[in-house]
Design brief:
By secondary structure, the protein is mostly beta strands. It contains 6 helices and 32 strands.
């Protein structure tokens, strides 16, 4: 501990002094970050040959690359490096594409007329302009007026809100593999209109909205808001995955009351948009919007994933009580494999909803399939949910069911980075998770049986929590300034 603490102080002295030669000597130092383990199930000998690699950063300039032999963590090695430019550590997870019903919103103005409101070029505003005008015409100057209206009396298709949120790649050595783009894709009305036209969902007959308009003393509009009073009618949630050139998305099982897809070209399924990257942002090719693959009526997408070489698009979906696994050609949408997963039958889940002020609005019941996530490895895929995992091995381009096993608590969602990491050696499946600066929690299975479960922890967090720096110094030594690089939070490799 004392050596590690002195190492930290030396590192920051080097940063402030800018002593490259001294930094090189630190790289060659024998002082190492220590790794301790607590074995909870089995014998560490069961993970012989399994190595974990992690990258920890601090202050935007310092980096530690850890290599941990998981059967002998005391022999772990650490490589320190100092970057001459700031690197970004960001555990932000982009949404890809986000499409939701425009069933509630509030707008505040300094004062606009009905004509200027009608001239708004937003597709949502354009669709709803007749509705807003109807209520605004009944609102007296200096008053606030609310009216319940039947939405279908004003529009036949459901207004949609759209956004796109993604990463752009960077090969610069001082950055993490990806960082959030300084200029996000600017959602203009052409994208909104393209998606509004493609997804022409019919408005339910029973959809009732409360429309409120407020005017100032001169009769100019100062506030406009609308809120669905149906409890609820439609909830849309999109799952998305993308490469540098393609975006794939679908409405998944966290949606409720999916509208009719009969007016959507290709119906319900997985949709595709081409991407053109350009410097610090990306552009979506609107003319490329298509249904890549259509799914049977009544289906519900559970998860999407691209293989590491981007040659396959993997998809799980539910239909009736059953869960299915589909392997697609991402260019043509052709199904290379399709089979059922031996998961427990779908159940139902009841969800409470709140209105715009946070008050209980009602509940809705929807089907729920337990196997909703996909982990892709080089020679395997794991399908999993909160209770069970299913291993499929990959050989000669074909997936074959190997075994199922109960999920360990640490492998379930809800932890930092919210990811599962794995490796398969032909006999043993290793699955790991990370949480904060805890190096990892590891479970190893063979033939569907848990062989080993251990928790590993590094000394970096302990060192940082006991250190201090003057307030004027550029770098913080607080423990929360140390963070795992999200794209290098954990790699598991069977060696030898």
């Amino acid at each position: 501990m004392k050596k590690a603490f002195l190492c930290f102080l030396l590192v920051f002295v080097l940063v402030f002094a800018g002593a490259a030669v001294a930094a090189m000597s630190l790289h060659q130092s024998r002082d190492q970050v220590t790794v301790t383990t607590i074995t909870q199930v089995g014998d560490p000998a069961a993970v012989q040959g399994l190595t974990a690699r992690q990258t920890v950063g601090c202050g935007g300039y310092l980096q530690w690359d850890l290599s941990i032999p998981l059967d002998r963590p005391e022999t772990s090695s650490t490589r320190f490096s100092y970057a001459s430019r700031y690197h970004v550590i960001d555990d932000y997870e982009p949404d890809g594409i986000w499409i939701v019903p425009a069933d509630n919103a509030a707008f505040f103005y300094t004062g606009v007329t009905l004509d200027s409101l009608a001239d708004d070029s937003s597709p949502v505003q354009t669709l709803l302009a007749p509705l807003f005008r109807s209520v605004a015409e009944k609102t007296q100057p200096g008053c606030r007026y609310t009216e319940d209206v039947r939405l279908k009396d004003y529009t036949d298709i459901y207004p949609l809100q759209v956004s796109f949120d993604g990463y752009y790649g960077s090969d610069l050595p001082w950055q993490a593999r990806y960082q959030k783009a300084p200029s996000w894709y600017s959602i203009d009305d052409s994208l909104r209109q393209a998606l509004q036209t493609f997804f022409s969902f019919p408005v339910p007959q029973e959809e009732i909205w409360a429309i409120t308009v407020e005017k100032d003393e001169n009769g100019a509009i100062t506030e406009l808001n609308y809120e669905s009073k149906t409890s609820p009618s439609i909830i849309l949630n999109t799952s998305a995955v993308w490469s540098d050139t393609d975006l794939y998305f679908a409405f998944d099982q966290h949606s409720y009351g999916l509208p009719s897809f009969h007016q959507v070209p290709g119906g319900y399924g997985v949709y595709h948009l081409s991407i053109t990257p350009e410097e610090d942002t990306v552009y979506l090719e609107l003319d490329s919007l298509e249904t890549l693959v259509s799914l049977p009526e009544g289906s519900m997408v559970l998860d999407l994933a691209l293989s590491g070489d981007e040659s396959s698009l993997l998809l799980t979906y539910g239909l009736g009580p059953d869960t299915f696994f589909l392997v697609l050609d991402p260019e043509t949408g052709e199904a290379r494999q399709s089979f059922s997963v031996p998961a427990r039958p779908a159940g139902t889940v009841e969800t409470a909803t709140l209105d715009s002020e946070g008050n209980p609005q009602g509940t809705y019941t929807s089907p729920y399939w337990s196997t909703e996530s996909i982990l892709i490895g080089e020679n395997f895929t794991v399908l999993y949910g909160d209770d069970t995992l299913y291993l499929y091995t990959l050989e000669n381009g074909t997936y074959t069911y190997a075994f199922s096993a109960p999920m360990q608590t640490h492998l379930r969602s809800g932890y930092s980075y919210d990811h599962l990491y794995g490796a398969w050696n032909g006999t043993q499946l290793a699955l790991g998770s990370v949480s904060g600066l805890q190096a990892l929690s590891l479970s190893v299975y063979e033939g569907g049986q848990l062989q080993y479960h251990g928790v590993y922890k590094t000394s970096l967090g302990d060192v940082a929590s006991t250190a201090s720096q003057p307030e004027e110094d550029e770098f913080s030594m607080e423990s929360d300034s140390l963070a795992l690089f999200p794209e290098q939070a954990l790699t598991l490799v069977w060696e030898g």
